Each structure stands twice: as C-alpha cells, then as structure tokens.
Task: inverse folding
C-alpha cells in the first residue's frame, strides 16, 4: 500500500509540474507528459526531467525573433526618437533652401535690382551665403557648450524668420532706391547664411547623439535628405511664385521649426548622458584635442578631404547656375531641366537612406564617385560635340545626352558624395571634440562652397561651357584613389575602433 501511495503522489507531482510549465511559457505549451523526457536537462522543474528538444528549439526561435524585432524597432527602446529627428531637420531644410532659392528667379531678381545676370554684383549675392554660413559654423561650438544642443537648435529658427522678412522689404525698397534694395537683399542672405551654417553643426551633432548604433547611418543621412528637400522646394517655389513671395517663405518655415521644438526635449538629454559615460576621463577636449591628440588628426584631414571632394565634384556648378547652364547648353526649356534634376536628386537621396546601412559607407562612396565620374565625362563629351558646327544635325540627341548625364551625375552624388561626408564626420570623432570637429568641417565646406560660387562663372568664361566641368572630372578621379587607400569602413563600429583603423593606414 505504501508503494502504491508513493507512486500516486509522484504522478500528481509530475502532472502539476507539467501544468506549471505550460502556464509559464504561454503559447509554447506542453500538452502532455510525452513532452517531458528523463535526463539531466536544464529547463525541467522536476529533478531528472527537462523540456523536450522541440520545445527548446521553439524557445530559441522565439528569442531570435524578439531580438530581431527589437533591432528593427529601436523606437521602442528610445521613445520619441523619430519625432526628435523630425524636429531637428528644419534647420537642414532651411540651409538647402537658402542654397537654391535664388537660382530659378535669377532673371527676375536681377531685373528688380537693376543687375546684369552675369555681373559680379549678382555673383556676390550668390557667394555671400558661404562666408555667412562660415561665421555661423564657427559660433556653433561655443553656443553648444554654453546653452546646450537643444537651445542651440532653437536659436536657428530666429535667423530664418528674420531673413524671410528682409527679402520682401528689399523688393519694396527697389521702387525707390536700388542700393537700399541691394543692401537689404544682401543682409537677408547673410542672416540666412548664419542660421544655415550653425544648423550644419547642430543638426548632424544632434542626430549623431540620439541615433542607436544600428540606425546611425540612416538617421545621420536625414540631414542630407532635408537639405535636398529644401533644394527641391526652393526650385518649385521660385518657378511658381514671384521672387519676393518665394523668398519670404523662409519665415513660415522658421515658424514651423519653432512649433516642432518641444519634440527635441528629452531624447537628446538621455542619449547624451549615455554617450558621456563612454568618454575617457582626463583626455583633452574641444579644439585642444584636435590640436594635440594625434589619434584624431588623420580622421580630421580625411573629413576635410571628403568635404573638398563634395564641393569640387561639380554639384554646386549645377545648383547655383543650372538654369543658365542649361540655357547655354542649348536646351529649349532650361527651367524644366533644373526642376527635373532637383526631383531626381531628392528621390536618389531618399534611396540613400537604406543603402547607406546595407552597402556601407566606404563601398557606397566608391561606387557613387565612379558613377559621378562617368556621368561628368559624358556631359563634357556631349558639350564638346555640341560646340562642333559640323554635328549640328545631332544637337537634339546631344541635348538628350546632356540631360541624361546631369541626371546620372546628381543620382550618383546623392547616394555618395552628398550624405556620406557629413555622416563620416559624425562617426570618426569622440564626443569630447565632435562639436569642434563639425565646426571645422562645416567651415571648410563653406570656404569650398564660396570658391565654387565665385569661380564657376570664371571657368565658364575661360574654358567655355563645354569644358567647365573638366576640372571636376580630375577631382573625382583623385577622390576615388584617396578613398580607396585611406578611408576605413565605419558602419556599425565604435569610435575607438575606427580611430585605431585610421591610424593603421599609411
């Protein structure tokens, strides 16, 4: 009787253990005793019993799915991440807007201000944006250190609202004094440049701080997406509105930026605290680190080189003078060519967001430069053939080749030289000197930008429109060699690991 009672109680214990295990695992239920086997397993609740291999495999698959779900849904880990990104991007949008908004209405603006289309006074209005942005970039690190990154981002909205109000005043003053109108227009460009230059420091720095490692490339690329979107909207506004109304829209965009600013609070502070915890204690910071720390010197040179490749690749010659360039190339509707190239540029930039995470920064940079090199070579060839009088019967085909080459170039640029230099600059510096590095890089970018704005018309006059992009072909060829030899891959790598790789290369 005692043996029967003992077997009965052991059976009850086994049944209860099975029920408890089923309740514990939820949907991975153990339906009967056959799912438990005797042995030395880990999961069993009864000594000598463990969960079947089938159950453990299902548990492993469920854990892998949960890990993948967490990887692809980082917003659950960082609440408000995407709203914080959207709130930061109007500064980048305004910078792209300021770069391109006076391109399409160039003839109307020159007529209102009594300027010739190709005069030095007009070139000065185009180029004055760059030294102004340089000033904004240099002020950026000091503002961040003193007021914090969120307040620094908020301050840029005031510059855009102010610049949007100055341009209509310039149009109104043109009826009484051309010199006053010119001065107000130039002041509006200066104010917009200061705000845009500061945004080129604040926005990449902010996006880099809030981005999880697995989305660092995609989120960092949003800065370039917003710039390109600003370029396109500026082209459309210039084509459909009078120039005072088109340029005054900057004020409304600044107001939208102010309304979005509350979304910035919280995420940045949390991520900044996490980043600060990873910084080594006792190391030099700021500009002193860039001067004295040999580990960050080579990355700094590479970041500046990438910015030079970006600006001298030929893209600014297309954006600043695209309408005039297409007209000199013989297109019947140069404005349509400008708008089409802007639209293709924006679509390709959106495409670069997933590509930069899938292909990697270095590989995408090399492929994009190769495509840009081929496109500019075809463009130069087509323009040279158009200048030959004996091939006048082929002009319609050559016009098509010109447009195709321009579209191929802007597509290649949009997936490589456009976003990747900004992204690389945000990945290769430790946080203790990242703001200052962004300041230097943005400053060099504006210097290169100004030299193109002033120098491209000179190239057109000296070399002719058919050879104006020939120097950019040589720049792209040199860029491929430099990137292939000296730039390491930065995708999903920590800063210290990237710095070690940089300094291994000769």
Result:
């Amino acid at each position: 009787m005692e043996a029967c009672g003992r077997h009965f109680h052991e059976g009850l214990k086994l049944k209860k253990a099975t029920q408890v295990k089923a309740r514990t695992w939820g949907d991975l239920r153990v339906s009967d005793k056959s799912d438990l086997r005797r042995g030395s397993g880990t999961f069993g609740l009864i000594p000598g019993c463990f969960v079947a291999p089938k159950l453990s495999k299902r548990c492993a698959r469920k854990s892998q799915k949960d890990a993948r779900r967490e990887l692809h849904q980082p917003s659950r880990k960082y609440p408000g991440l995407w709203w914080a990104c959207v709130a930061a991007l109007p500064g980048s949008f305004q910078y792209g807007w300021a770069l391109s908004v006076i391109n399409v209405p160039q003839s109307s603006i020159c007529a209102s201000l009594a300027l010739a289309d190709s005069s030095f006074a007009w070139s000065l209005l185009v180029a004055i944006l760059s030294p102004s942005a340089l000033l904004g970039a240099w002020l950026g690190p000091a503002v961040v250190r003193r007021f914090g990154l969120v307040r620094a981002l908020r301050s840029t909205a005031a510059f855009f609202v102010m610049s949007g109000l100055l341009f209509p005043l310039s149009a109104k003053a043109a009826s009484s004094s051309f010199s006053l109108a010119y001065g107000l227009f130039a002041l509006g460009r200066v104010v917009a440049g200061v705000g845009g230059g500061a945004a080129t420091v604040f926005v990449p720095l902010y996006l880099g701080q809030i981005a999880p490692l697995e989305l660092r490339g995609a989120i960092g690329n949003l800065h370039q997406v917003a710039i390109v979107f600003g370029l396109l909207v500026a082209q459309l506004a210039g084509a459909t509105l009078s120039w005072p109304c088109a340029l005054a829209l900057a004020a409304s965009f600044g107001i939208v930026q102010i309304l979005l600013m509350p979304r910035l609070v919280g995420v940045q502070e949390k991520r900044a605290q996490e980043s600060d915890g990873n910084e080594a204690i006792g190391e030099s910071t700021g500009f002193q680190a860039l001067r004295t720390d040999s580990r960050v010197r080579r990355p700094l040179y590479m970041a500046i080189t990438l910015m030079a490749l970006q600006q001298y690749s030929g893209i600014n010659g297309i954006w600043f003078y695209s309408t005039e360039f297409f007209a000199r190339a013989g297109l019947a509707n140069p404005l349509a060519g400008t708008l089409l190239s802007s639209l293709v540029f924006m679509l390709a930039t959106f495409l670069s967001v997933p590509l930069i995470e899938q292909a990697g920064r270095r590989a995408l940079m090399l492929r994009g430069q190769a495509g840009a090199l081929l496109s500019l070579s075809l463009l130069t060839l087509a323009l040279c053939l158009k200048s030959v009088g004996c091939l006048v019967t082929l002009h319609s085909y050559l016009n098509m080749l010109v447009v195709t080459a321009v579209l191929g170039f802007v597509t290649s640029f949009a997936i490589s030289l456009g976003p990747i230099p900004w992204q690389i600059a945000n990945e290769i510096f430790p946080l203790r000197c990242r703001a200052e590095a962004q300041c230097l890089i943005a400053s060099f970018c504006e210097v290169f930008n100004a030299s193109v704005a002033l120098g491209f018309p000179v190239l057109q006059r000296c070399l002719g429109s058919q050879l104006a992009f020939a120097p950019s072909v040589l720049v792209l060829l040199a860029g491929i060699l430099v990137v292939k030899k000296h730039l390491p891959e930065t995708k999903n790598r920590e800063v210290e690991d990237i710095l070690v790789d940089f300094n291994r290369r000769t």
The chain has 23 helices and two strands. The CA atoms of residues 78 and 257 lie 22 Å apart. The longest helix spans residues 178-210.
